[in-house]
UniProtKB/TrEMBL annotation:
SUPFAM superfamilies: Adenine nucleotide alpha hydrolases-like (SSF52402), MesJ substrate recognition domain-like (SSF82829). GO terms for molecular function: ATP binding; tRNA(Ile)-lysidine synthase activity. GO terms for cellular component: cytoplasm. Pfam families: ATP_bind_3 (PF01171), TilS (PF09179). This is tRNA(Ile)-lysidine synthase. It is an enzyme of class 6 (ligase). Residues 45-215 form the tRNA(Ile)-lysidine/2-thiocytidine synthase N-terminal domain. ATP binds at residues 50-55. The keyword ATP-binding applies. It comes from Bifidobacterium moraviense. The lineage of its organism: Bacteria, Bacillati, Actinomycetota, Actinomycetes, Bifidobacteriales.
Amino acid sequence: MAYSASLRKAIGDLRLCLAAQGLARQSARFAEHGRHEPDPGAPLVLVACSGGRDSMALAAVSRIVCGMLGLRCGAVTIDHGIAADSAAVAADVVARCRGLGLDPVVSRAVAVDRASATGLEAAARQARYGALVDCARELGAAVVLLAHTRDDQAETVLIGLARSGGLNAIVGMPSAFRRGGVRFARPWLDVTRARTGAMCGELGLRWWDDPTNGDAADPDAPLDASYPLRSRIRHDLIPAMTRCYGHDPTAALAAGAASAALDADCLETAAARIAADVLSGDTLCGDEKDGSNDTGRRVLIDAARLADEHPALRRRVIVEALRRAGASMSSTHVEAIDRLTVDWHGQKPLSLPSGCTVIRKGHVIEVCKDSGHAYR
């Protein structure tokens, strides 16, 4: 079968992604013409498949690429139980993936906390990733592939700009990451949603459209607040930006995210070196001798040494100190601790969420997740 240029590019992107994960051709026989079955012990590539156009295209192309390399290829679909027909949709996705030749193919039902303070979409994402990690561990997957596209990346940048500030708001989604000891990768962050739809047509694939995406809604009427923010950005904001700028902004947004991710990685690497020099402690800080159960983590910051660093690096080190102490934080808290570092004039201890206190004593700032520690 002769593939189109866009499908060949998608195949190439996936091969590069797998190579970056250390998944190369398993033996020379897989370079020969004809179809060759992978060995039973070959590494398993697991595709997270919702049944939408993006993930169905990725499942099909993964099967092709894994066949070229001698890798096993399977899929997992997650039934969130939110829609009334979710079980039937999951069963259909399983059947379609098996029809493509993927094996193993499994479906997992999850319980989504509908009352979560973070919102239904975030709760569903947390439950989904938890199930994907569990499946990958049980099946011994070498990597889990996610079908996020360039359009998804652009939407993620716009969400980040709306919800937070700073460089990390615009870095978008990483191309690869670890969660729960499982490797995840996004091979198609440079592939558009239009291309995945075209690939489905080329490969004769059918897909399921999630009604919460708003694809079937009136394109001339805005989606109401019952739709997820991502869907409203896709349906309303990006078309408005296209009209305003005279071109689709998703390519520029995704390219900007890739550039920002490099800058963020450079800053994080430099901050990690500084943190190794100025942070210490990371010990339990409860008062065991009085029988208190109010124990937490204590981290010390050498403020005198940190003060000479650039603000962007100082604040990353402060975030790392709070992370080690197990403290929740906001940008306001980080800025307040930064002032303790560079503008020390006897300020009172800071009280942070989750029972964390921050106090400066001489040249040392003590961060302790223990509500009474700083005053004992």
